[in-house]
């Protein structure tokens, strides 16, 4: 049934689930309700006392806004691929906005220079 035996899951996985849930200020019963399981079943998952299906692990990760691999690795607080992509795009947008601002300043200076030169030439007409 595609379950990961509890013996293969480090106890830290359950601890991470609990820590991340608590950090988001979600009660055990509310989180269990979101998962469609009993609070007792969630307690066993968080305590590392039960096997967990891959789909359940993915569901838990999704509700915690992380990827399943982040639950299984040592750094669950590492940004997900989506968060990383968003941060990269935001940085590009910010850089573009800075470039646009610099170009607007240059354009304004050029416009002022053209105005000055035109007014200089118009004096001789």
Automatic annotation (TrEMBL):
Pfam families: HTH_3. Residues 86-113 form a coiled coil. GO terms for cellular component: cytosol. Residues 17-71 form the HTH cro/C1-type domain. InterPro entries: Cro/C1-type_HTH, Lambda_DNA-bd_dom_sf, TransReg_Diox_bact_type. GO terms for molecular function: DNA binding; DNA-binding transcription factor activity. Keywords: Coiled coil, DNA-binding. CDD domains: HTH_XRE (cd00093). This is HTH cro/C1-type domain-containing protein. It comes from Mucilaginibacter pedocola.
